[in-house]
Design brief:
Strand content: 35-45%
CATH superfamily of the largest domain: Immunoglobulins
Structural class: alpha+beta
CATH class of the largest domain: Mainly Beta
Number of domains: 3
Number of helices: 2
């Protein structure tokens, strides 16, 4: 009796009755690989994947049969039996069940896959040339997770495995374009690429490999523009434009000054718009305005202490945008430079300057004409005097 009970318990464990389904949460458009747990499938093994009870693919020897939901986005690894789903859709959500049958016995694994609606699979990251960018794994890193970062599908640029104390960056690849530019966050697995150039822009991918599945993410890092520069007079109002016409519902906007702490933030998901007037050093107190629609920042009554480097970070699951502005506030009567990234409230001052310039030009014209008239009159008088003297010397006057 006892031996029979042990046998039953063993069989129940083998088919996974006592093990809950592995929960796999991904974003629509991402890719995920569900691992079979075997390193190599034998020719006599039969592997079958089911979705919500319906068979989608079966492999036996060299024969693969597909059915139902299986399409070009699903790839079955013949060697291991792993199932990879690329560009996952919300309709792919459900309970995936793996059955492996062989002469050695049978085993089952179950995955509860949830795909949240969001974006098209590749996060677009806009960054200013020369700036730094942080690419996020966006998942809690477990001790036995293995993280691998790639550039342009060819170059491995970073690897992390906590349980083996592996925290490596490979900045000598691709002719050294990443030399001294890569940094790996040992807690989150995020990678930081500094001093972005045209050569280091492009497609970045990360695989977060776990015991039973792997999450794949992709980022397209593009250079949006160069540093925006602006020079204004003290006292004017200036607006630093976010570069977007309307924020998305899950955007997080953060404004920073000179690489310091965040002094303004918009969290669209939480419906919160915040200005932290105590930082940095309370210099902006009562002079900041945030546009909740676009994320643009307005500074009123500018002072020379407002001069410096401003950063805006806009992040969501769809995109990551970084922009930099260099603002120079002068107490001199400098000419204001106006560009598309800025809005400046200097209309009255500009009109005054223009009026003064017109008056000066008019005065110069009047002076020139008056001076010319004096010279002409003097020449006429000298000519008349010479004629009178000639007449007198010739005896032509009685």
């Amino acid at each position: 009796m006892k031996s029979a009970l042990i046998c039953v318990l063993f069989l129940l464990c083998a088919i996974g009755v006592f093990g809950d389904a592995e929960t796999v949460s991904v974003i629509e458009g991402e890719s995920v690989t569900l691992h079979s747990g075997v390193t190599e499938v034998q020719r006599i093994d039969v592997i079958e994947w089911r979705l919500n009870g319906n068979r989608i693919v079966r492999i036996s020897g060299d024969t693969i049969k597909t059915n139902g939901a299986y399409d070009d986005r699903m790839k079955l690894d013949k060697q291991t039996g792993d199932l990879k789903i690329t560009n996952i859709k919300t309709t792919d959500s459900g309970l995936y069940k793996l059955e492996i049958t062989s002469t050695r016995g049978s085993s089952e694994k179950t995955f509860n896959v949830s795909a949240d609606p969001s974006f098209d699979g590749v996060t677009v990251v806009g960054v200013t040339e020369g700036d730094s960018v942080v690419l996020h794994t966006d998942t809690e890193i477990l001790k036995d997770d293995e993280i691998l970062w790639r550039f342009k599908e060819t170059y491995d640029i970073a690897k992390m495995k906590k349980d083996e104390y592996i925290f490596s960056t490979y900045d000598n690849i691709a002719d050294g374009i990443f030399r001294r530019r890569l940094q790996l966050d040992h807690q989150t697995g995020n990678i930081i690429i500094s001093d972005i150039t045209l050569k280091t822009s492009g497609l970045y991918e990360v695989d977060v490999k776990r015991r039973t599945y792997t999450i794949h993410k992709a980022f397209n890092v593009t250079i949006t523009d160069r540093l925006n520069r602006l020079t204004v007079k003290e006292g004017v109002t200036v607006t630093l434009e976010s570069g977007v016409t309307e924020l998305d519902r899950d955007d997080l906007v953060r404004w920073r000054f000179e690489h310091e702490v965040v002094f303004a933030k918009i969290d669209k998901m939480a419906g919160i718009s915040s200005i932290y007037e105590d930082v940095p050093d309370g210099k902006f107190r009562g002079r900041l305005k945030l546009d909740d629609l676009t994320g643009s920042l307005t500074i009123t009554h500018t002072t020379t202490s407002d001069s410096g480097l401003y950063h805006i970070d806009i992040t969501s699951v769809r995109h990551v945008i970084f922009r930099k502005f260099f603002l120079s506030v002068s107490c001199l009567n400098d000419v204001t430079l106006i560009g598309p990234a800025f809005g400046v409230g200097v209309g009255v001052g500009a009109a005054v300057v223009l009026g003064v310039l017109l008056v000066l030009v008019a005065a110069c014209v009047i002076y020139y004409r008056h001076r010319k008239f004096q010279l002409v009159t003097r020449r006429d008088m000298e000519k008349s005097s010479e004629e009178v003297l000639e007449c007198c010397s010739g005896g032509g006057v009685l």
